[in-house]
Amino acid sequence: MTAANRRSAPGATRSDQGAAEPLPRLCEVDLAALGVHPPVPEVPVERDADHRIEAAVGGDAPVVLVAAPRLAGATLALARAARVLLGDHRVVRPDPAALAGSAPLSGPADPALLALLDDRPDDGSVVWLDGVGPALLAALLTARPPAGVRILATVDDALLHPDVTRTVPGPDVALLRLAGELTPAEAARAGARTLGGSVDVGAARDLLLGRTAGGPRFGRPSRRVPAPARAAVLRAAVDWSRLGVPHALPTPLLARLALAYARTMPDTVPTPGVEDLTRAVEELVGKGGPGRPLRRLRLPEGVHHVPDALLTVTADRLGRDGWEPPDRLREVVGDLLGTAADRAERRTVGVLAVARGFDDLAAALLRPPSAPDAPQALAPGELYRLGVASLQSGRAAEGRRWFGAVLDATPDDGSWRELRGRAAFWLGLDRDADPVDRRRHLELVVRDGPPRDASDAALLLAGLERDAGRFDAQRGCLRAAVAAARSAGDPGREAEAALDLAHLDRHSGRTAHAREGYERVVDLVGPDGPAALAAARAVADLDRADTDTDTDTDTDTADAGFVPDPLPEQRAGSAGPPLPRGGDDATDPGGPLEGPSDRPAVPPRAPSPPG
Length: 611
Prior knowledge:
Elements: H1 3-7, H2 50-57, E1 63-68, H3 74-85, E2 90-92, H4 111-118, E3 125-130, H5 134-140, E4 149-156, E5 173-177, H6 184-190, H7 202-209, H8 227-242, H9 251-262, H10 274-285, E6 294-299, E7 302-307, H11 309-318, H12 327-336, H13 343-355, H14 359-365, H15 380-392, H16 396-409, H17 417-428, H18 435-448, H19 451-467, H20 471-488, H21 491-507, H22 511-525, H23 530-545
Parallel strand pairs: 1-4, 1-5, 2-3, 3-4
Antiparallel strand pairs: 6-7
Helix pairs in contact: 2-3, 8-9, 8-10, 9-10, 13-14, 14-15, 15-16, 16-17, 17-18, 17-19, 18-19, 19-20, 20-21, 21-22, 21-23, 22-23
InterPro entries: TPR-like_helical_dom_sf
Protein name: Tetratricopeptide repeat protein
């Protein structure tokens, strides 16, 4: 194809004379047109990395990538440096999604980009890519543009996760990173200003939450489509984009996914049908162009819908409190990426789901260790969250593998006490585990877990010792359970453990100890509690048997017989990093993990492991 034919291809810009208009110079394009969210700050926050970005743009590397969390200023910093240092260069701004993840300099779909690469001006040219996706990022990291062509791109730094992008930057690529928070020096220069603080996301938030019909930024939708239907369509498109699903999203699939999202929205009464959601797609796309919430692209694999970048930013800010993807999304993505050839893409989507807080989706897509395609660089807290999500979905064996990965990924030096203790607790509930491993995990909880977890683990150990006939060892476990429950400030749990200990002392002939234990139970819960009533009945039995004349050994020599291994004492000091957040039900394996009540209470006898 000749240069003239390329210029006349569909999508090329034309003048009234029929010739393609010359590409603009970089200095002629305003910052908003380069992807900076309006209002563009008159005085941007000065970042410590600005000089490094300027050095890279003014240097010899033909590809410059700036990675940062969304709204951290990456686009603004790169655009300012480019306009100053490369202002006389011609610039083309292809839609990153329209490149469909192909190597941008070998088979691009954008006609203007084809023309630029064929007829490069003598004063140089720039390819500007704002917000590239995972596949395009991998291509850019090894790109070698023709002489005279520079590629400047921004990327969400979540895509630089080692399990998402494993490609090492090539010799022609300069990769720079911006933090999502200001350093003390940056904050001092910024004063009261914050990163992205001037960007108004209110209209996007209302649109995603179904609170309004739209706003000035996104046009004025008609009243034919209710706001919740519009929100459901946008949520589906936003999540598809945020997860980097490497497949087109045509209208029929988008509408059916939106139906699943609509069913999760409490304000959607009645739930719109597929026809209503299809109309919502057409309305949101409109005639295309700027100011529309969705844009429609025609990619080699089909029609695709891409949401406005401000919608994805807003969804990230809403976080996991905004919404959870429905099961339908998990099913669709799982089917699309279900073959062995798609394992890398499946892992990419799963890891991005972890980054976005979609733990249920991530747990369904990712294979836990020691699967060959399991993620290798997840943080210990993320591994724990995936274990909780697997348990909630009824995949107990899979959950235990994630919890085992937590222990493998963290040192046993006290720096990860609470997280290791919680993971070991769930492993200790597995009745089918090797007894030696199960005991080791429960002892770890007694030593490092929160006091209530330690009490529960000691009760479970007491049951193991009872079943093995090691009653002195059982006594030591029950005493540890009493002490841990007292430390947790849980009189009910302390009374349960004390009652079991008193029963053991009674049947072991330690009558005086038993009476003291029963009295302690009554002191803890009052005379009317179930444990106190059981204690009173036991004391009455003792009185009737008139056993006060004592076969009681009444020494502590038996207590020293906690064999074969004594329980470790609670490790002193900080419990380590805070636990990651889980689900919303405190009676559930995935309940709030900030405190000790993130799992069901463990009964003193015959505890039932999950699954």
